[in-house]
Amino acid sequence: MRESFPDAPSALTRARAIMRDLADWSTAPWPRLEPISTAEQYAYAIRSFGTARMVVDREPRTFPFLGELERREAITFDAEQPKSWLTANLRLSPGLADLCPLPEGVMLSLDTTLPFGTPESEAEDDATEEELDRMVSVLGPLSLYVSWDCGWRGLPEPKDCGVLLRLNSVRVSQHVEPSPGEFGVWVRLGNRVAWTPEGEAWLRDSGLPLGEPRQGC
């Protein structure tokens, strides 16, 4: 089941309301910020944040770009480097606007930049609801998805049940694609019960619109 909303705060409010009204329990939110992939996201990042995390393929096509960042004294490489790519911190400023679009093989992310994370953050880290509020308040055109596991009241099996929130992104064939202005809430019932009579009855009785079907939802 999926519902669409006009903005990020209203989608977040709806996700929380669904869990409050229909779940016996829910876990802490698990937010994931997608890498910067559009010109609008890049422009917003260099204007609004101080640093970003960069991962760059060790390929000749990326070397002129890295050289230019070094010339501008905007990049600091990690002391230890993997064999196949380079990792670094990029100091953001509006003066980097002319470097868009980023070359192929360059990934830029704010997932270690407050309020989305810190240099010590791990991919498996949950967030508090207060931390999530701060992320949404500065999200702009960036793409964020958030998941909660839930125990839906009245369903016999909680496995893979929960709520999935996508802000400025959509899910296509189980993958995330950036889509500015798309704000959606998915309710997951889990494959064990989604298509059973119990699952179908739960959807009918929940008061939720059926919306756009998704596998396992």
Overview of this structure, please?
With 217 residues, this protein is an alpha+beta fold. Helix content is 24%, strand content 31%. It contains 5 helices and 10 strands. The strands form 2 sheets. Strands 1, 2, 3, 8, 9 and 10 form a 6-stranded antiparallel sheet that branches. Strands 5-6-4-7 form a 4-stranded antiparallel sheet, covered by helices on one side. The longest helix has 15 residues, at 8-22. The radius of gyration is 20 Å and the shape is elongated. The relative contact order is 0.23. Residues 212-217 have low confidence and may be disordered.
User: Biggest β-sheet: count, sense, barrel?
Assistant: 6 strands, antiparallel
The number of helices is: 5
Overall spatial form: elongated
**First-to-last CA distance:** 5 Å
Portion in helices: 10-25%
Strand content: 25-35%
Q: From the helix content, strand content and strand pairing, which structural class follows?
A: alpha+beta
Mean pLDDT score: 90
Order of helices and strands: EHEEHEHEEEHEEEH
Radius of gyration: 20 Å
Number of strands: 10
